[in-house]
Fold each of these.
Amino acid sequence: MSDEVIWHCLRHNHCSFMAKIETGLFCRNPYNATGICNRSSCPLANSRYATIRDHDGIFYLYMKTAERAHLPNKLWERVKLPRNYEKAMEVIKKHLEHWPELLVHKIKQRLTKMTQYRIRMRRLQLKVREKIMTVPRKKAQRDLQRLEKAEKAAQLEKSIESELMERLRKGVYGGEIHNVPSKQFHTILDMEKDDLAPEIEEEEEGEIEYVEGADIEMGEMEDMEDFQGFSGEDDDGDEDDGLDEPVTMRPKRSGSDIRSKIGRKSTKVITEVNHLFQY
Amino acid sequence: MATTARPLVSVKALDGDMATDAAGVPMPHVMKAPIRPDVITFVHRLVSCNSRQPYAVSRKAGHQTSAESWGTGRAVSRIPRVGGGGTHRAGQGAFGNMCRGGRMFAPTRIWRKWHRRVNVRLRRVAVASALAATAVPAIVTARGHRIESVPEFPLVVSDSAEGIEKTAQAIKVLKQLGAYADAEKAKQSVGIRPGKGKMRNRRYINRKGPLIVYGTEGSKIVKAFRNLPGVDVANVERLNLLDLAPGGHLGRFVIWTESAFKKLDEVYGSFEASSSKKKGFVLPRPKMTNADLGRLINSDEVQSVVKPINKEVKRREARKNPLKNAAAVLKLNPYFGTARRMAVLAEAARVKARKEKINSKRTKLSEEASKIKAAGKAWYQTMISDSDYTEFDVFSKWLGVSQ
């Protein structure tokens, strides 16, 4: 059938390649040279037609003639176009020498456009492009929750505590910390208060210290009675006594008393400044 | 129609066929019938009605009550109401299409005209046209069939195909012929129908694949190709428009067996000779034997008689109003120019004469008097104009006002 009849059937009846959008009519046929659904651009309605198609970055010129219209297998003849734009133009000119001008012009335009986008694609490949990755929200949430749970399960504080206690017991921090274990410490303190303190024998290697008679012991007892009232002014006296007898345990003031400065001598340094001269 | 030089269609041999030297089968005349999409749309639409099954609502629906209208005076609408009592239904409206439980408006009846008759000749013309369209690869491609690998169009296969019994072999044959792509497309396209048809025994839909046409009655080929989705089988003597142009769209992909292809001439006849199977049917003749407008216009016979192309464009001149435009008046009245000139001159002369006359009648002032008069005028001018005030700048500064 003639091209006119075919075009009439396609355009006014049905063509599966036609795509109608608000800006115009387009053709989905891969052999269409312009992409528009047109009497002159329809590869089905023109028995003599040519296009350029791209395969893996190589351009091929496809041609069909009326002679092969009844052999769909062999319909399109393919010619490989050289990489060079000018040479490709020459090849096109040679193969489509006596073809209708409009078609040849459209094909040359197509070649130009394809060359341009090929260059652009190649350039883009070399650049590093950001790829937008989606966050798998559920997975991320799940991991966070697991992290929290793991922290809780590890009981870090407990293990730190036990480690520190170990070290304390071993004596890493020196032997000067007396209020561990705290229970026994408190009981001893209470017992001291009630004069029931058993004398703790310190094992000292070496030096034997000689102490004076019972007078000093009596003096001490007096002092200890005074201690019950807990007057803060006895500081100096206390310290002197403390140096003579290191055997008995010095009654220490509990933490809160030490910290409070009630009754203590003022530690503030008073400076007097003469403001005689004024500049 | 150049029926004398008919192209030869070669017959594709299948594997296992004996090699034949046959040149091919000449193209049957039907394939040259005029392609008439309008006829096909018309006939297809009507013929599609013929397999419909009637539907209707029950004859009694909505009328199985003995409702009576209460008439006026009861402060209710006059629609018939169900009588009796003791139930919700009592006093409710009945019979009307607006009533709940009433009969619908215009209840559908089974005696609706479901089928349409089409003239026999029209039906035959439509089929002939559809057959012609199946021979044009462009139209078949446009319909959506995948025929890129098909070796020849129309596709004719040797008669050994009619002996195929197994579907597996049928698929092999299709692959050999390059027709499997189309059958595969149909197979891939199977899906569930959208809409209520799903639950009305029309659950699955798929695209149409090739149509296999065979010649000899009772061939096993029917059973072999029957199970392939999208593939239809038909006997040459009973070709259906609904198969040749599904959806009213021309150009189904048809695979002929040799005997079927040869029988076509018998069944449809030619443009001169009537068909033997269809009594009195002669193929329709086209309105134009050569429909290629381009060729016609550019042919020697036409071009030799045609006038040369006139490329120049004659543009309309813009109309100018003669009451306003002097050039426009001049075109209409050539004397206008001289008349106007003379009038202008006359006017100038008249003005001059009048002036002189007045001057002569006026009492002449002496030279002294005229000088005094002029001085007085000048002094007046100085009085009224601000810019003549020489010390204006300093004065305005003193005032503190800028002007």
Note: The longest strand of chain B covers residues 211-214.
Amino acid sequence: MAWFLLLCAPLMFGWIRASELTFELPDNAKQCFYEDITIGTKCTLEFQVVTGGHYDVDCRLEDPDGTVLYKEMKKQYDSFTFTASRNGTFKFCFSNEFSTFTHKTVYFDFQVGDDPPLFPSENRVTALTQMESACVSIHEALKSVIDYQTHFRLREAQGRSRAEDLNTRVAFWSIGEAFILLVVSISQVLLLRSFFSDKKTTTTRMGS
Amino acid sequence: MGYVALESLRMRSARPTGSVQMAAVRMQFTLYLVFLLNIYNSFVSSLYFHIGETEKKCFIEEIPDETMIIGNYRTQLYDKQREEYLPATQGLGMFVEVKDPDEKVILSRQYGSEGRFIFTSHTPGEHQICLHSNSSKFALFAGGMLRVHLDIQVGEHTNNYAEIAAKDKLTELQLRVRQLMEQVDQIQKEQNYQRYREERFRQTSESTNQRVLWWSIVQTLILVAIGFWQMRHLKSFFEAKKLV
């Protein structure tokens, strides 16, 4: 019983996670996320702006003391790895305060520690067989494939949103320009007509 | 704690006779242990953020079809007296709404201060998961913010391997291979979705191309036609005025 609880303990504290979220950041807004991290854990923060304006955002990462570990302005994509120097709540914020009217969609992936093992630490005491280590290396390779796929998907989403934007803009602009052309040409003619109408009355008055 | 009692009972009742049985018992025990730990999984603090009383927070998940998503959340309310965040009161719940890419609501439910929502996508695309608190009384929040711990697992990550191993009675190697198979399945689905998205992108670009081409021709024709009309109209106007 005691042995069972002893096994549980190290796995329960400093539980390791990866959080991946995509959210919308309205203009002049700031969104902060917090996570409690134990000392010595290797963490990675990756973010990418998916849609909106010039596709850039301000990012800032602070440790529990308030020391800024990472600060970048107007960045489109970045990846930052750090090791937690102390226990506590780490905070990272994305800011769109420099933008006046564009909403941004931001994706971030915050990985804390390594992935939880498929089996508890009991099996790590004995060495892995060749088959098992082959499986582990394939698993790691597939994880990086999935990661690349995600980044590709985000970039493609960015390209696609720009293309759709362009398409609607072209449609509106062509209708708008046709309308403007007609209005301008008709008003030109009417204006010219009005010039000549006035002159005629003044010349007759002068004559008499 | 009930699980721990169950475990000790199992250990005592299973009397291993041979080394093989011993290994089998150890294996089962290991799996139950992992199962237990996965229970703890959902209650451990993860990423959190603050949400205002009437604020609605939305998250976007762009996923292929037939993908399962499991979301876990836990809320805490700021207690002014103790100046810390404590688990929220009973009356406070969160309203979870999930919309599919066609803006159709596929999940719209109210959960308590702690909840777990699961849904499977039927169309590929951007799904929107929105959360907001169901509180209408300002007194509950006392001008503070609600702390929401959120964890969203997509696709392969939703699989509970301990459960699968226990149900299908898989050895460690078989479980690892199973995990690899799930991962490859997810990659394949994503690639398929990628092909569909690329097709949409190509259609949009071709539509823009056509529109630009069509518009330039029409604009030239309009200009020429207007030019003719203007000259003809003015000529007849001046002839009528006996100026030409």
Note: Residues 7 and 193 of chain A are 96 Å apart (CA to CA).
